[in-house]
Design a protein that fits this description.
Layout lengths: L1 H13 L2 E4 L9 E4 L10 H20 L28 H20 L7 E3 L5 E3 L1 H25 L4 E2 L11 E2 L2 H11 L1 H7 L3 H11 L3 H24 L1 H12 L6 H38 L21 H9 L2 H4 L13 H6 L7 H18 L8
Helix pairs in contact: 3-4, 3-9, 4-7, 6-8, 7-8, 10-14
Length: 381
């Protein structure tokens, strides 16, 4: 019996005890104690709160993954064997190159509308092509496109994280050149290929090698369609570059001042594009006025309206140009033909050849003015 009593006493020592303390301020507290098993004290409420804090911390880490979108895991060991041919997507070299490619895309968007300045109203009252500006614009565009070709090459040699293996910012790096090439071909290769086609250069070079009256009209019509059709992919290719910058650096614009300057740059580019298009359509409106007033009974021929080398040696053209009233009716001051918003370009004299800086600044001012006024123009007095 004494032995059983000692056993019950030992079990009683290991059992939890509770004690109700005295009421303090009308409240009572219940304290649990669990001595033994090598622990000094154990509080279930404290343990529960500690586990809750740890679980909330894990949820926050899942809610806010790696901002750069980069894989947290280390690169595969196989990348060492491909390091000469495959680029790490997190390399600082690619970050600097993407910033450089972004600037080249902005320059390309600004240079393409310069082709709208190529048609001019020559001093002999005919539509011609500014050859000096044609050579300059084609050379600058070719250089910018050559720079972007480097990005096309890098896209075929830059590793990427497999989408199927991404788990909370981590993933498996794909370094197979075939898979990398197939991924780029299925995504942005077609857009980059169409944007890099030298179509305006071909149109201009063709005219420079055979400059004649009918070629001026064909060159003028071809330029507007080629530039406008290629402008869309050349504008859209900026977004993949900015996407790569965000993936590599985590952010695209770091400060508020940089963001304000970025959007101001787009506003200025919009004014530049609107102004150059307004210049080209002014040439088109002048051409329409000439064609309306060109009658065969007056000795007018449509080929007289486009500059040609035969004009200087043609007595028939000289006699017609000196006697025709077309140029007086289509100078923007006669109310017989409605020029609308293009009358300002005719009166200002910017449609003539030469003085490219003042011409581009005037058109830039006109574009910004109409963007600000929502399309309503105001004529300077």
């Amino acid at each position: 019996m004494d032995r059983h009593r000692e056993d019950f006493k030992r079990l009683d020592e290991f059992s939890p005890r509770s004690s109700v303390q005295s009421e303090i301020g009308g409240r009572s507290s219940l304290r649990f104690s669990m001595p033994g098993f090598g622990y000094d004290s154990f509080n279930p409420l404290r343990s529960f709160m500690s586990g809750l804090r740890k679980s909330s911390g894990r949820l926050k880490s899942l809610r806010h993954p790696n901002p750069s979108g980069a894989p947290k895991t280390a690169f595969a060991e196989d990348l060492k064997s491909f390091k000469k041919n495959i680029f790490d997507p997190q390399q600082k070299f690619l970050l600097r190159m993407n910033r450089f490619f972004f600037l080249s895309c902005i320059f390309a968007v600004a240079v393409d509308p310069l082709f709208f300045f190529l048609p001019v109203i020559d001093n002999s009252n005919c539509i011609g092509i500014d050859k000096k500006l044609a050579v300059t614009s084609t050379v600058v565009r070719t250089i910018i496109d050559s720079v972007y070709l480097i990005r096309v090459f890098l896209q075929f040699r830059t590793a990427y994280v497999a989408p199927s293996s991404r788990v909370f910012g981590s993933g498996e790096l794909v370094i197979d050149p075939t898979l990398i090439a197939m991924r780029y071909i299925k995504s942005y290769f077609v857009m980059d290929f169409f944007a890099l086609l030298p179509l305006p250069q071909i149109v201009v070079w063709r005219y420079l090698h055979s400059s004649d009256g009918p070629d001026v009209l064909a060159t003028k019509d071809a330029l507007v369609w080629v530039v406008l059709c290629q402008y869309i992919p050349r504008l859209l290719r900026i977004f993949p570059v900015t996407k790569d910058l965000k993936r590599t650096a985590g952010v695209f614009i770091e400060t508020a001042w940089a963001g304000a300057g970025y959007y101001l740059l787009w506003f200025m580019l919009a004014g530049h594009n609107v102004g150059t298009l307004w210049y080209f359509l002014s040439i088109e409106r002048e051409d329409s006025c000439w064609l309306v007033n060109c009658h065969a009974t007056d000795g007018c021929e449509p080929t007289y309206l486009y500059c040609s080398e035969n004009h200087a040696s043609s007595d028939k053209y000289k006699n017609w140009s000196m006697s025709t009233p077309i140029f007086n009716k289509c100078n923007g001051t006669d109310d017989s033909f409605n020029f609308g918003i293009y009358q300002q370009a005719l009166v200002s004299g910017i449609l003539g050849p030469g003085n490219f800086v003042s011409k581009s600044c005037y058109c830039f001012w006109w574009g910004l003015q109409n963007l600000r006024n929502g399309g309503s123009t105001s004529h300077p007095r």
